[in-house]
């Protein structure tokens, strides 16, 4: 199968169009007491696409909201993601709520949350209108932790998102940090490499089973599951590398709606649970699952119809 990826690209993310950049949106964090660092650290990018990281919010990048932008002589420490007040904000990875409250990080204004992910890695979520976790609580990747808002020094509703390595003084570019972990910040299909594990792998396994291949649903993206994905990629004329990236996800997901049943419904229920739905994985797309889908669509500013179609799928697994 010919390689349809651009030269030098190691995954399917390239060629996926970025969201439009909106102008006239939010102002991010205030003055920093430290310098900005480069992005991803020493581990290889491929090894980091392990299913452990999630997109923290659906939205758009506003003009001037990017990492390093000049804010009156002070570089912007994060990436702004714009959407309406009340849009759900999710934990980018599992860990604990290190600080929750007003002004929890030096130089930042408004309601914020700092999550600690181990290995001196932190994420920060600013300008929130509501907290959904308390300080000291454990959080899972993709858990609903707060709502987008306008608290602090802002001109409009948005999430100010930061990534920190080597402690809270080690701020790094969130876009490249998340991209190295297979996440398209602001919304988009993720990239999951062989060796990944966790609930997003269970989603892949259920979807492969829906396509007629028997797999144990164990959340381990090992040789058996990778082989099944490669066979699927080959059958669809995709680049055969075992990575579940944007092109593979788009072919793999299956629409689920009221009255549907089977493994694709179990996949949707598992994905909804990543985003705090609390569903029983029974394969029945009945009223409870429809309601959970509608709620997810509403808080992510998607079209609310209760149908788990491609746009909803992308937001769920991203």
TrEMBL record:
<keyword id="KW-0472">Membrane</keyword>
<keyword id="KW-0812">Transmembrane</keyword>
<keyword id="KW-1133">Transmembrane helix</keyword>
<protein>
    <recommendedName>
        <fullName>Peptidoglycan binding protein</fullName>
    </recommendedName>
</protein>
<dbReference type="InterPro" id="IPR036366">
    <property type="entry name" value="PGBDSf"/>
</dbReference>
<dbReference type="GO" id="GO:0004222">
    <property type="term" value="F:metalloendopeptidase activity"/>
</dbReference>
<dbReference type="InterPro" id="IPR006311">
    <property type="entry name" value="TAT_signal"/>
</dbReference>
<feature type="domain" description="Peptidoglycan binding-like">
    <location>
        <begin position="198"/>
        <end position="252"/>
    </location>
</feature>
<feature type="domain" description="M23ase beta-sheet core">
    <location>
        <begin position="75"/>
        <end position="167"/>
    </location>
</feature>
<dbReference type="Pfam" id="PF01471">
    <property type="entry name" value="PG_binding_1"/>
</dbReference>
<dbReference type="InterPro" id="IPR016047">
    <property type="entry name" value="M23ase_b-sheet_dom"/>
</dbReference>
<dbReference type="InterPro" id="IPR011055">
    <property type="entry name" value="Dup_hybrid_motif"/>
</dbReference>
<dbReference type="InterPro" id="IPR002477">
    <property type="entry name" value="Peptidoglycan-bd-like"/>
</dbReference>
<dbReference type="InterPro" id="IPR036365">
    <property type="entry name" value="PGBD-like_sf"/>
</dbReference>
<dbReference type="InterPro" id="IPR050570">
    <property type="entry name" value="Cell_wall_metabolism_enzyme"/>
</dbReference>
<feature type="domain" description="Peptidoglycan binding-like">
    <location>
        <begin position="262"/>
        <end position="316"/>
    </location>
</feature>
<dbReference type="Pfam" id="PF01551">
    <property type="entry name" value="Peptidase_M23"/>
</dbReference>
<feature type="transmembrane region" description="Helical">
    <location>
        <begin position="20"/>
        <end position="39"/>
    </location>
</feature>
């Amino acid at each position: 199968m010919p390689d349809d990826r651009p030269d030098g690209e190691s995954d399917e993310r390239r060629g996926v169009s970025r969201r439009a950049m909106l102008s006239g949106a939010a102002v991010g964090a205030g003055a920093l007491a430290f310098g900005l660092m480069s992005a991803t650290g020493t581990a290889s990018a491929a090894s980091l696409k392990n299913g452990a990281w999630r997109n923290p919010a659906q939205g758009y990048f506003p003009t001037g909201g990017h990492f390093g932008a000049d804010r009156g002589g002070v570089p912007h420490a994060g990436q702004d993601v714009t959407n309406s007040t009340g849009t759900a904000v999710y934990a980018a990875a599992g860990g604990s709520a290190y600080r929750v409250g007003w002004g929890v990080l030096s130089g930042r204004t408004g309601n914020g949350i700092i999550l600690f992910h181990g290995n001196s890695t932190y994420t920060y979520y600013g300008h929130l209108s509501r907290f959904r976790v308390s300080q000291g609580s454990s959080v899972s990747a993709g858990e609903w932790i707060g709502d987008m808002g306008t608290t602090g020094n802002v001109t409009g509703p948005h999430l100010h998102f930061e990534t920190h390595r080597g402690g809270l003084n080690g701020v790094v570019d969130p876009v490249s940090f998340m991209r190295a972990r297979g996440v398209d910040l602001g919304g988009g299909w993720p990239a999951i490499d062989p060796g990944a594990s966790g609930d997003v792998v269970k989603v892949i396994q259920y979807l492969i089973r829906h396509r007629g291949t028997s797999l144990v649903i164990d959340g381990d993206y090992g040789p058996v599951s990778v082989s099944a994905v490669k066979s699927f990629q080959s059958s669809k004329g995709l680049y055969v590398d075992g990575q579940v990236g944007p092109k593979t996800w788009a072919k793999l997901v299956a629409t689920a709606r009221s009255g549907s049943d089977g493994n694709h419904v179990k996949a949707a229920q598992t994905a909804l649970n990543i985003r705090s739905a609390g569903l029983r994985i029974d394969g029945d797309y009945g009223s409870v699952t429809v309601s959970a889908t509608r709620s997810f669509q509403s808080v992510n500013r998607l079209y609310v119809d209760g149908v788990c179609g491609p746009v909803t799928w992308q937001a769920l697994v991203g």
